[in-house]
Amino acid sequence: MSFFVAYHPSYIHAVPSTHRFPMEKYGLIYEQLLYEGILEEAHFLEPNLLDLKIASKVHTKEYLTKLVNLNCTSREQRVSGFVHNQQLIEREFRIMEGTRLCAERVENGGIALNIAGGTHHAYTNRGEGFCLLNDQAIAAQWLLDEQLFKRILIVDLDVHQGNGTAEIFKNNPNVFTFSMHGKANYPMHKEESDRDIHLETNLKDKDYLNILKSELTAILDSFSPDFIFYQCGVDILETDKLGKLSVSQNGIRLRDEFVLNKGKERNIPIVCSMGGGYSTNVRDIVNAHMHVFRLAHQLFGK
User: Might you name a Gene Ontology BP term for this protein (predicted)?
Assistant: First the structure.
């Protein structure tokens, strides 16, 4: 099978109750995958904790030491979005391992998806925006270190710029960072990705998809990646409280379909992380995320 999904109950249960929304989406996605028969319970990848040595290839030793020993300052914790505790830190390392495990297991021309992840605001030396460590950066660096792939493309379609990812790989010619995000959205100070597209407020399906198709096709042609990480946040949705864009559920489905088909056409393995989603109704968030799972199963799971 060339279709894998990583999940662990701690993705939600290790989060403080004050932050359960929208984190509860992870458990609901898992339940929906079972309900629709996309996967059986025994077929999910269940990640352990990421090896600290692998994390240290991306994040500084000083920061990791502070994180695992619960020594981050009150200000650093506020910036990260969480009050830190041992359970939360272990959760973060498990999510990191989920994306790395997906990258290890995915086959050429196949796909693997982490129900969590997409923690693109984490920098080499700090956490930010509910991201303590950067899962796609860690997995990408691991692939390079293991010499499994040589040219990695990170496609970040969350409404917020992947600022941490851009900082981590700013001097690495083997990783191309591509971020399409809201111009008037967090973070106000944006890092420089290899390719940044700053989207205007209230952008709708047609214009969004036209930009994506033009930009991603050009990047694939010029960079010729042999591996793709896809951060498929759904906070571009018109119902999102924070997104400021006006993309419909069908627009998200077409977005995911385009990205997945591009990978399949070129026989490039893809690993997806879910990223953000902040609609008032959690079902809107889950429905938006489910598009990529259904498409992955349809295109790669047979």
Answer: epigenetic regulation of gene expression
Per the CB < 8 A criterion, the answer to whether 111 and 302 are in contact is no
CATH of the domain at 248: 3.40.800.20
Report whether 254 contacts 209 (CB < 8 A): yes
Phi, psi (rounded to 5 degrees) for 271: -120, 125
SS3 253: helix
Closest Cα to residue 57, out of 170, 154, 137?
137
Determine what percent of the chain is predicted with pLDDT higher than 90.
91
- Quick check: 177 and 137 in contact, CB under 8 A? no
- CB contact set of 84 (below 8 Å; sequence gap of 6+): 67, 70, 72, 77
Q: Which domain holds residue 275?
A: 3-300
Number of compact structural domains in the chain = 1
Q: Please answer whether residues 157 and 232 qualify as being in contact, where contact means their C-beta atoms are separated by less than 8 angstroms.
A: yes
What is 130-157 written as a DSSP string? TBSS-HHHHHHHHHHHTTS-S-EEEEE-
Place of tokens 């950067």: 134
Would you call 271 exposed, middle or buried from its count of C-beta atoms within 10 A (0-12, 13-18, 19+)? buried
pTM recorded for the entire structure: 0.96
CA distance 227 to 209: 22
- Tens-digit pLDDT profile for residues 72-121: 999 999 999 999 999 999 999 999 999 999 999 998 789 999 999 999 99
Model pLDDT, residue 225: 98
Sequence-distant (6+) residues with CB within 8 A of 227 are 103, 140, 143, 149, 151, 152, 153, 268, 269, 271
